[in-house]
Amino acid sequence: MSGSSATESGVIHGAVHVPLTGLVEHLGDLDPARPTVIYCASGYRSMIAASVLAAAGFADVSDLLGGYTAWTFAMVAS
Question: In the chain, where does DSSP find H-type helix?
Answer without folding.
Answer: 44-55, 67-77
